[in-house]
Design a protein that fits this description.
This protein has 640 residues and is α/β, with parallel strands linked by helices. Helix content is 36%, strand content 13%. The protein folds into two domains: 362 residues, no CATH class; 156 residues, Glucose Oxidase, domain 1 (3-Layer(bba) Sandwich), CATH 3.50.30.80. The longest helix is centred in the first third of the chain and has 28 residues. The structure holds 6-phosphogluconic acid and iron/sulfur cluster. Its EC number is 4.2.1.12.
């Protein structure tokens, strides 16, 4: 099937836009490569330190400077149910790589924050920045420079993006991502949401709420809604950074263990020491990034990827923006309905056909680039498969994904999608540019025009809700939630209250320079408003009572205020000191001061360029030119 013309044109535009930075990136990648094993560049003392604690057999292999060494970078901790299973993975990996004549070394751990534990709490104000801290921790692990390939153990929201950003700064090394899989299905997500709304109405108490939550989140593995964590899994599959179909195999099962061993062997086999060298910097190219955007859209994936994918692309020297998402969204059909976009969870999705089914349908529909490089080599078709245990429960065999969906209520063929478009759109107007995911919003709620109610915090909003002041039509303008203000926390805790008001027949919407969770859904929300207020964004001029129009169909985000009144408005201010101290927030001041706009990924790292500088704070390079990818560069482009 010929490629869809919009896929072609958006890809061509991204390649052209990225030429300078992608060129600089690939130059850096080539410069990092050495003849022989990377550890051969170390002095004897460095090397001795690097294998001092290793068993004799591995030490000998490392000393000989011939066999590849595979770095293990792991985001294991007990806080994330999704990461808890990683505890035993390093031993499996070390054992598996010996089978192919390599050595594996636990290079380093990275932090991992559970957004479920911190949702609605002060800790959530570190969450977005934890992505870049994870990228930095990955670099610290790999900076030992003992390694010829790497496996990355991570699943959740900021962790996979952070690991991949870090991995891309070592783009000369192959990268294999190793997931741990979803927890088994507990209380359904829709049942869970219902109990939350009843609690918000005061109809059930804490005991019932905690019981419901505990039945939903009941064991090891990723939470089973299609939020950012499971969106990460879909993206790793479509970018060819997982072994095919590894995403949604349950933890602590024989197949999960065999997949982990097979992933470790693959990482060793594709190092520069083999004739199948596949560095991650060549796997993640413009076509892979476009494939990731398409997979996100077709599955109604997390809005957080309109930040994370931008930051990941940037790490590889590739510049994407929300116009790219918006144009692709108009032609990419919705092929899955997984909560919050439906009632099913990822276990149902996997059973109905899973990631291999989606990739095949999109390839057949001309909506994915097949001519990409993955950890298996050339071509994406190899990822249209599903893994099964091999003979006598040893190893893994892959079979073609099923031709037909196992459940049309969860997964559809491209010939009969749930909707002709992907449902994550750009909305823009005199309030700035924002993202709106409507795949979980009923059509009758996708346009809201109502008076503004302005809040400076989610606590203020909840106070007004509990005081019964919100039983009306309104657009909640929640401001000072951008990355420079308070780290851009997810505002998912507002969902039950907004959903109750919507269910009661009120026309409500949310507009904010903050974010929602990947699991947020049914209430229309224009989020990530750029520029944020602290960067002079016009959201700071909105006052209570202004009529605000948010419309997904026309892509509109505007305050209907008479032009001379609007022009005369002062920019709102707020006391943000409470957001700069406590719960460790004082350690992240440098992130708040140098973070880029949401549409540039809300990241603190510069685009690869011959003279890398920190964007945000310094929009000019040492000789006074505007730094590509800086705020100034970005806003200049948007004005042009
Ligand atoms: O982007 C996401 O998917 C969220 O960050 C998710 O990881 C988080 O845990 C939410 O809190 C949803 O879970 P709850 O509805 O249980 O809060
Ligand atoms: S999916 Fe969210 S809530 Fe669940 S373990 Fe991951 S970060 Fe925590």
């Amino acid at each position: 099937m010929a490629l869809h013309p919009v896929l072609e044109s958006v890809t061509a535009r991204i390649i052209a836009r990225s030429k300078p930075s992608r060129g600089a990136y690939l130059a850096h990648l080539d410069a990092a490569r050495v003849k022989g094993v990377q550890r051969g560049t170390l002095a004897c003392t460095n090397l001795a330190h690097g294998f001092a604690a290793f068993p004799a057999n591995d030490k000998l292999s490392l000393k000989e400077l011939k066999k590849p060494s595979v770095a293990i970078v792991s985001a294991y901790n007990d806080m994330l149910s999704a990461h808890q299973p990683f505890e035993g993975f390093p031993a499996l990996i070390k054992d598996a790589v010996r089978e192919v004549g390599a050595v594996a070394q636990f290079a380093g751990g990275t932090p991992a924050m559970c957004d479920g534990v911190t949702q609605g709490q002060p800790g959530m104000e570190l969450s977005l920045f934890s992505r870049d801290a994870i990228a930095m921790s990955t670099a610290i692990a790999l900076s030992h420079n003992m390694f010829d390939s790497a496996v990355y153990l991570g699943v959740c929201d900021k962790i996979v993006p952070g690991l991949l950003i870090g991995a891309l700064h070592f783009g000369h090394l192959p990268a294999v991502f190793v997931p741990a899989g979803p927890m088994t299905t507990g209380l359904s997500n829709s049942e869970k949401a219902k109990i939350r709304q009843l609690y918000a109405q005061g109809k059930v108490g804490r005991a019932e709420l905690l019981e419901g939550e505990s039945q939903s989140y009941h064991g090891a593995g990723t939470c089973t809604f299609y939020g950012t964590a499971n969106s990460n899994q879909m993206l790793m599959e479509v970018m060819g950074l997982h072994l095919p179909g590894a995403a949604f195999i349950t933890p602590n099962t024989p197949l999960r263990a065999e997949l982990t061993r097979a992933a470790a062997r693959r990482a060793a086999v594709i190092s520069a020491q083999s004739d199948e060298y596949l560095p991650v910097g060549h796997v993640v190219d413009e076509k892979a990034i476009v494939n990731a955007i398409v997979a996100l859209l077709t599955t109604g994936g997390s809005t957080n990827h309109t930040l994370h994918l931008v930051a990941i692309a940037k790490a590889a020297g590739i510049v994407i923006d929300w116009d790219d998402f918006d144009e692709l969204s108009k032609v990419v059909p919705l092929l899955t309905r997984i909560y919050p976009n439906g009632n099913a969870d990822v276990n149902h999705f996997h059973a109905a056909g899973g990631t291999g089914f989606v990739i095949r349908e999109l390839l057949d529909g001309g909506l994915l680039h097949d001519d990409v490089t993955t950890i298996l080599g050339k071509g994406l078709r190899a990822h249209c498969t599903e893994p099964f245990l091999g003979e006598n429960g040893q190893g893994v065999v892959w079979k073609a994904a099923p031709e037909q969906s196992g459940d049309e209520a969860v997964l559809r063929k491209i010939t009969a999608p749930f909707s002709p478009d992907g449902g994550t759109v750009l909305v823009k107007g005199n309030l700035g540019r924002a993202v709106m995911k409507v795949s979980a919003v009923k059509p009758e709620h996708q346009t809201v025009e109502a008076p503004a109610l302005v809040f400076n915090s989610q606590e203020d909003f909840m106070e007004a809700y509990k005081a019964g002041q919100l039983d009306r039509d309104f657009v909640a303008v929640l401001r000072f939630q951008g990355p420079r203000a308070n780290g851009m926390p997810e505002l998912h805790a507002l969902t039950p209250a907004l959903a109750n008001l919507q269910d009661a027949g009120r026309h409500v919407a949310l507009v904010t320079d903050g974010r929602m969770s990947g699991a947020s859904g049914k209430v229309p929300a224009a989020i990530h408003v750029s520029p944020e207020i602290l960067a002079g964004g016009p959201l700071g001029r909105v006052r209570d009572g202004d009529i605000i129009r948010v419309c997904a169909r026309t892509g509109t985000l505007e305050a209907k205020v008479e032009a001379s009144v609007w022009a005369a408005r002062e920019q709102a201010t707020a006391d943000l000191t409470p957001n700069s101290v406590g719960m460790g927030r004082e350690l992240f001041a440098m992130f708040r001061h140098s973070v880029s706009e949401a549409e540039q990924g809300a990241t603190t790292f510069p685009l690869p360029s011959p003279i890398p500088t920190v964007v945000g704070l310094h929009d000019k390079d040492p000789v006074g030119n505007t730094v590509p990818g800086s705020d100034e560069d970005f806003s200049m482009k948007k004005e042009a």
